């Protein structure tokens, strides 16, 4: 049976398993994370000076580190938060946040569009590889905190080759995995392993790095990803 190997988190794989009964869904983690101490201290320092009207989370990992390391920021976020997409929103809901907004476009551009029409202040929590469009938005009202770094597990990339078989799909959920995939690029291209991405942006970067993409989701609403994959893989 053909497999879909998600290069992301177990949470993402679990959501896809509920919809994709026709295919085995496995997860293979090629990214590690580590919090950035200076950024965490900056969050604490800035909170003493101002409380944002909304807390913005660009990933589930950003939620995790704020809740684990800066409880005072988590308390503020509990009043009103913006999540980049449904997966991040789910992480907030699980932590008891009831007022969670999601932009129409589940992407960095969606966050930018939302904040451009927002009259209040915001603290934005992200990784060290945040999209430039969000960095350009920063001002006295919108403060960006890169609270964790993404660390590609380059040494694990070759292990992926023992998991995939001809005809399997690998699903890229982040462009950060490309650094690891580049080390096995020739092996991937020699095999009949098909490459899919959850966005046009990741797909374009994959083509530039690996030289190929077979399928990508071009929707703004990530809640439609499972249906898209079901239509194309089943």
From TrEMBL:
Pfam families, per database record: HEM4
Residue ranges occupied by any Tetrapyrrole biosynthesis uroporphyrinogen III synthase domain in the UniProt entry: 30-205
SUPFAM superfamilies listed in its UniProt record: HemD-like (SSF69618)
Annotated GO MF terms: uroporphyrinogen-III synthase activity
Gene3D superfamilies the record matches: 3.40.50.10090
Domain of life of the native organism: Archaea
Gene Ontology biological process: tetrapyrrole biosynthetic process
InterPro entries: 4pyrrol_syn_uPrphyn_synt_sf (IPR036108), 4pyrrol_synth_uPrphyn_synth (IPR003754)
Name assigned to this protein: Uroporphyrinogen-III synthase
